[in-house]
TrEMBL record, chains A, B:
The lineage of its organism: Bacteria, Bacillati, Bacillota, Clostridia, Eubacteriales. It comes from the Bacteria. PANTHER family: BRANCHED-CHAIN-AMINO-ACID AMINOTRANSFERASE, SUBGROUP IIII AMINOTRANSFERASE. InterPro entries: Aminotrans_IV, Aminotransferase-like, B_amino_transII, BCAT-like_C, BCAT-like_N, BCAT_family. SUPFAM superfamilies: D-aminoacid aminotransferase-like PLP-dependent enzymes. Its cofactor is pyridoxal 5'-phosphate. GO terms for molecular function: branched-chain-amino-acid transaminase activity. Keywords: Amino-acid biosynthesis, Aminotransferase, Branched-chain amino acid biosynthesis, Pyridoxal phosphate, Transferase. It catalyses: L-isoleucine + 2-oxoglutarate = (S)-3-methyl-2-oxopentanoate + L-glutamate; L-leucine + 2-oxoglutarate = 4-methyl-2-oxopentanoate + L-glutamate; L-valine + 2-oxoglutarate = 3-methyl-2-oxobutanoate + L-glutamate. It is an enzyme of class 2 (transferase). This is branched-chain-amino-acid transaminase. Its EC number is 2.6.1.42. GO terms for biological process: isoleucine biosynthetic process; L-leucine biosynthetic process; L-valine biosynthetic process. Belongs to the class-IV pyridoxal-phosphate-dependent aminotransferase family.
Amino acid sequence: MDIKFVKRDVLKEKPDQKNLGFGKYMTDYMFEIDWIRGEGWVNPRIVPYGPIEMDPAAVVLHYAQETFEGLKAYRTKDGTIQLFRPEMNARRMQRSNERLCMPSLDEETFVEAIKALVNVEKDWVPSEEGTSLYIRPVVFANESALGVHMANEFKFVIMCCPVGAYYPEGINPIKILVEDELVRAVKGGTGFTKCGGNYAASILGQVKAEKMGCTQVLWLDGVERKYVEEVGTMNIMFKIDGEIYTAPIDGTVLPGVTRDSMLQILKEWGYKIHEEHVAIDDIMKAGHEGRLEEVFGTGTAAVISPVGELVYKDDSVTINDFKIGELTQKLYDELTGIQWGKLEDRFGWTQTI
Amino acid sequence: MDIKFVKRDVLKEKPDQKNLGFGKYMTDYMFEIDWIRGEGWVNPRIVPYGPIEMDPAAVVLHYAQETFEGLKAYRTKDGTIQLFRPEMNARRMQRSNERLCMPSLDEETFVEAIKALVNVEKDWVPSEEGTSLYIRPVVFANESALGVHMANEFKFVIMCCPVGAYYPEGINPIKILVEDELVRAVKGGTGFTKCGGNYAASILGQVKAEKMGCTQVLWLDGVERKYVEEVGTMNIMFKIDGEIYTAPIDGTVLPGVTRDSMLQILKEWGYKIHEEHVAIDDIMKAGHEGRLEEVFGTGTAAVISPVGELVYKDDSVTINDFKIGELTQKLYDELTGIQWGKLEDRFGWTQTI
């Protein structure tokens, strides 16, 4: 790919690495490429980060033809920069785009574009403990047309922002509301994709959870309102009687890269893993019987979020005395160890830039 | 509301009224108003229609916080212009926005904004038989922020385009695929709203239907895959043994303004109406037994779309010999008669501008 580079006159000042937050500071540049029906992907370029012009009748603003991805670049102790399994994001975006009738970059081009942008922005990859450069690829239909249809023009953009540790004070258990009214996804829908519509639909559940003193929502299946699926924007795992339970990837749950990585590590460590539909009633029962040893969410942003309490209707269970579990901590240390290059990458997950 | 007006130097040339199509020609102006948390709705203005600047990290491009509406302005024989039940669109957008955690204009302001814009654009309201001015209000989150949250900044825009008769050669029956795999909506989701995500998720079904030689999709419920819900972007009604059946408004089906108007007319005409869940198996059975007299979709764009054939799995039924039904035609004539001011508006549905 021949990427055009448009230099900006003045670079931004880099923010304090101790107060990065999430998504507060966009870097100097972004990658852009356009798709036009009949021509394919055209005009790859790295240009100064800034506003794009959009027609008010652009398809994305009315019919939400849009998908995105999220991954990070990590600075290792020796100063090199590495990506974590970017090919997984490329493939997931392809699956998202198929469902949404949108064009995809091939895997190689997707990864090449990310590497090219991170290479330009390498001074933006922070070095403080727990920090990283968050990378956000997004593709949306920018054709101007009010009829509902498979759009004929798309724009793919990659933007970056340095981010701090998701939980600056270290990973602490959170309290979660099991949502029994609102639904995130159903088979035959878009639950397995990272399309905008899934996230728009989820905000009300999040607001409701916060009103009830909870940090996140645990979604149940949309058909029987019985089986656990995801928590907020993360996958979720349960350790019961020493074994791991998590929802299978069969249409409604996002196939998380962190989820997949955790499962591989857990398998290596000899854990028995059940990728199956688990009823919330069984989880609560295990909790009351003292067999629900650990619960944690997994995702790129937070890596791992221990769950200290589950609230379901009039019932609630506390997990591991609201303290981070031993396995949860061990998984966090293992995965972040590989990501920041402190531990040997025996799975071949990292790619140096 | 004190609406600022920014005049454009040169007005566009008006298109040929005989070849308007749908959404091909945007008018000269658009209405815009912004919402900022803590301030509310600010800066109402009518400005030249044209591109808006958007940050690549705008919430709408990633998380699809967006809803829209659709209605029309009609030119009557004496040259006056009238709207059809715009307060219904105002109220529906409020319900959409509540589900999506978005701010709404109050009903009065919503209608006032539409009237102000149509008044400026009155020369754009076409007079040819079957033509009208399509009006598209849309609201979306334009805050720049990558965290999933209830956004703090929104933009509400109204745009217009003159449109031709939806079916230029007159209303003709269409062939419809009953979709048994993909799902449009489920209880607890966003099916009753006009949010972008619903439409993005529906495109694949439409593509699949077209591949099978059908014009539209008939969606079944997401839980049992058994009950009829909507067709494409319209509501659907069945006349069986002289009585009318249509899905109830209970969470998954869009509360159509045309649907509501048709039901009021049908009630006045003495038809027995069943707003209830009807199984596709019963519809197909009625078809094979010759009791399925008429089937039609209802919506603002096409007003009424007669269905000539239903294809479901390996089965299919033809309705009324693939000819438009007597009641379907009568309903079309009645409703369009009121909309274009040819018939007395005994329901008080129209508002003159």
